Amino acid sequence: MELRNLEESQHLCPQLTKGEVIISNGGDRAPPKIRDCSKKPQWGKLLTLVGYASTIGSAVPVGYCIGVINSPATLIKSWCNDVINQRYNVQLSASNLEILWASIVSVFLIGGAIGSLGGAWVANKFGRKGCFLISGLLFMIGGIMFSFCRMANSVEMLILGRLFVGLASGLTTATLPMYLSEIAPLTLRGALGVFCAVGVTGGVVVGQVFSLRNIFGTSDLWHYALSFYMVLVVICYLPCCYFPESPKYLYIVHGNRERALRELLRLRGKDALVLIQHEMEEMDMEISTKVVTSSFFSVLSDPALMLPLIIVCCFHGGQQFSGINAIFYYSVSIFEKAGLSTADAEWANLGAGCLNLATSFLGPVLMAKVNRRPLMMFSSAVCACFLFTIAFILYYIEAFSWLPMACIVCVMGYIFFYQFGLGPIPYFIGAELFEVAPRSVAMSMGSLASWSCNFVIGMAFPSLSRVWGAFVFLPFSLTCALLFLLTKFYLPETRGRDPSEVAPLVAKGFRSKVT
């Protein structure tokens, strides 16, 4: 049984009662059957395949490249020093070696910022699926350079590899949540949109595991640790020829209504014709409005888009300034102050990463059942309190014997509640605040803010921690408090709403009444 033809489908729904759709029986003279399609949309096979494959093949490598670089740092520094001495007859001083290492680490973040900035153009030029394919290509190029840099005795290959995976990571964080949100039905949009956040978090843990000394964290195998993610990329990109393009991109950006309808039929199945008709009507309405803003300049200069753009950038930047990276940077020393040996502290740090990952798996369930505003406010407020407490406990940590253990509890509590809102929501909130035309620019700007703030944290935190000591966590606490206020007064509830319903609520800038 199938729709009579694609053109007829656009006139089908108005002729039906609510929750019913007439299906033809291939020309049979029997009375047409009526099927109830008012049920909530389910995870179809294609939607499930795209969600998991794109997350494991694209988002997990982003986190992997973040988490893998820390453990073998000493080994890579020693190798770089030896290679430069052999090739250029130059013996690097300790300070010059640290500058070189900072460059190797930071070029990944610079690549992420560049990839994010170019994400809008790439997404509109090559499509959402095209961005996914380009990211995979960049990941493979970077992985190949990691695999052969030690054989070629080339520090330059290592740096270029970090740049390529940075470009791929920036493009992924800018476009993958948008792709998943656009192919998902409205009721599953939040659950699928959070997949990217879960993938990045999981990738960090996987990278930490494979860089352990018991696996690839040795002087002979560290380059395999850097490139092992290629296995995931190859496996998950094998079925990419079956992946659909975003129907909203096809129709609203390219004006190809027929192909958009075909992709919707593939994603939802022919048993969900009322749902498909509803989604097509929403796209008809959006394409008939004057929301045609798509260039960077037009989005940045549009007063109606100012507030949602500020929210997206503040959520992304605030996620980095909320202290999660600083917590993991400092956690080993905290665990050591609690009486653990260095080796045990490293394992405890891995345990903290596993807690972060385990909690992130709650994301799809929470996003499907709980509104965005209360989740974000709750997460921001609790994390602000934990960070404030951590700062003062660290300052007085030697005063009482129980304070180190209390500090560990606060660290674990912060990591747990971070994944309720601060962790997942910034990744996909842009897809829920913006309609299709300006969405790619908004997602790119948000991702750019995230990578830029990550770069600032990476460069500034070690110096600030030496100067401010334990009180370095107070600005992170303040950031969480400011995110709480921004959410309370200016973020409209987006769960279960189409962006066309949300956009008017924030169109008046800071004079908007979102509640």
TrEMBL record:
Keywords assigned: Glycoprotein, Membrane, Sugar transport, Transmembrane, Transmembrane helix, Transport
Molecular function (Gene Ontology), one example: hexose transmembrane transporter activity
Keyword ATP-binding: no
CDD domains associated with the record: MFS_GLUT_Class1_2_like
Spans traversing the lipid bilayer: 49-69, 99-123, 130-153, 159-180, 192-210, 222-243, 375-397, 403-429, 441-461, 467-487
Name of this protein: Solute carrier family 2, facilitated glucose transporter member 1
Major facilitator superfamily (MFS) profile domain span: 51-495
Membrane topology: Multi-pass membrane protein
Gene symbol of the encoding locus: LOC119636905
PROSITE patterns membership: MFS, SUGAR_TRANSPORT_2
Homology family: Belongs to the major facilitator superfamily. Sugar transporter (TC 2.A.1.1) family.
